[in-house]
Amino acid sequence: MRPTFDVIVLGLGGMGSATAYHLARRGQRVLGLERFTPAHARGSSHGRSRVIRLAYFEDPAYVPLLLRAYELWLELGRSAGEPLLTATGGLMLGSSDSALVAGSLRSARSHGLAHELYTNAELRRRYPQLLPAAETVALLDPRAGFIDPEASVRVHLQQAAAAGAELHFSEPALSFTAAASGDRVRVRTERGEYEAGALVLTPGPWAPQVLADLALPLTVERHVLYWFEPSTGVAAFSADRFPVYIWERADGVHFYGFPHQPGPPGGVKVAFFHVGSPCTPEGIDREVKESEVAAMRRCVREHIPGLYGPLLHATTCMYTRTPDGHFVIAPHPRHGNVIIGSPCSGHGFKFVPVIGEILADLVTRGATAHPIALFGLSRFAAAR
Ligand SMILES: Cc1cc2nc3c(=O)[nH]c(=O)nc-3n(C[C@H](O)[C@H](O)[C@H](O)COP(=O)(O)OP(=O)(O)OC[C@H]3O[C@@H](n4cnc5c(N)ncnc54)[C@H](O)[C@@H]3O)c2cc1C
Q: Cα(44) to centroid of ligand 1, in Å?
């Protein structure tokens, strides 16, 4: 007989691990299927740090979700006995009319969020590590910081298993079948076929393949993360002196970074934001080119000169982008009990626990009280 479950979660990365946890703790019989090993480095959820921030320049509509995400990160860290969120404050740097600074300010004002505005002179005085051009100012988001993505996946998986979820690793789902809404769903792997009342699809950068029949306008991109050894030593970049930041340069390019984190790979991490090249999970070039390193070194030399030291490590990671940069969280248009969760476009990680809660709501209640109107599928049909 085919093993049966209440819910199957396909893909146990950032989003799927949290979804399996939220479903299992509501008493659902959960099967989680993962192509690789737990907290692997071949998808979108690796590299030791992800920025979390509250004054959201992309759209103030994300703020209520962020407020809930903060609560859940703290709750999860407490129950795991390890902090997953490190608060450092966060600087949004650019000219006062840049999308980043103006958008963060709009979010902060419309939701009454604590924030400070620094003039160029104040910025230079408070953060001598930075070399801002004359027109550069900053908004400080005091609640910003970073999340450890590998620890998040590991802890969510541990807690999902502790709550009774059955988790299978190195077992890719090959296909799924679902009839009309309400019918059972079947998922086939090389090891067998499983049946459930609902299916959650959280395949990250494999979404264009898993959802090929919907022809969604999703683009998978290769991005590079860099860790440099500061030429001035790491003390000036410790988390109590150096916050997370996003910097909008005069040419419109964004880059962002973190304080020094103890442990491998060492050094201080920095990356370009939304500067990637199209790829597929199978075809991605994992080798980081000299020319890419040189471009990042030029950027740090110009903006954070103390970071202009030897490259300690570089790795690639994949974004799954939508044309408008907003997430996809919606029931499958033809199968009401198949729920799609593709929150990326390079900014999804900070939302992981609230996405887990939302996807669990959609499975168990058919609706969620969280505001997810931005993330529906109908906007793509309208865009075509
Ligand atoms: C370089 C980079 C920097 C980022 N920086 C930030 C940041 O600072 N702040 C922020 O909030 N967000 C950031 N993001 C975005 C964030 O990391 C992503 O939104 C998030 O990781 C997406 O998680 P996911 O679960 O959708 O994908 P993944 O974590 O990749 O999970 C998908 C999982 O599905 C599995 N899978 C796929 N197909 C199958 C199958 N057929 N069968 C079984 N398993 C399958 C995969 O193996 C994988 O484990 C960044 C992303 C990148 C790449």
A: 3
Q: What tokens appear for 152 in the block? A: 């998040």
Task: Give the C-alpha separation, 80 to 2, whole Å.
Answer: 34
| Lowest mean pLDDT, pick from 143-147, 150-154, 212-216, 311-315 | 212-216
* Cβ neighbours of 353 (radius 10 Å): 27
Alpha carbon of 226 to ligand 1 centroid (Å): 18
Query: Which residues, including other chains, have CB under 8 Å from residue 68's CB and lie 6 or more apart?
Result: 354, 357, 370
* Predicted confidence (pLDDT) per residue in 147-166, tens digit: 999 999 999 999 999 999 99
Going from the C-alpha of 21 to that of each of 16, 27, 337, the distances in angstroms are 8, 10, 19
Does ligand 1 have an atom closer than 6 angstroms to the CB of 257? no
CA angle 121, 250, 234 (to 5 degrees): 60
- Look up residue 224 and give its two tokens: 């590079």
What six digits make up the tokens of 194?
Answer: 């499983």
Confidence of residue 183 (pLDDT cuts 50, 70, 90): confident
Q: Tell me how far the alpha carbon of residue 278 lies from the centroid of ligand 1, in angstroms.
A: 16
Query: Which pair of structure tokens corresponds to residue 131?
Result: 């070399």
Residue 15 CA, closest ligand 1 atom number: 25
Ligand 1: residue of 209, 347, 352 to mutate (most ligand atoms within 8 A of CB) is 347
Closest CA to 144 of 380, 370, 350, 367: 350
Contact 167, 20 (CB under 8 A): yes
13 CA distance to ligand 1 centroid (A)? 6
Alpha-carbon gap, residue 222 to 328, rounded angstroms: 19
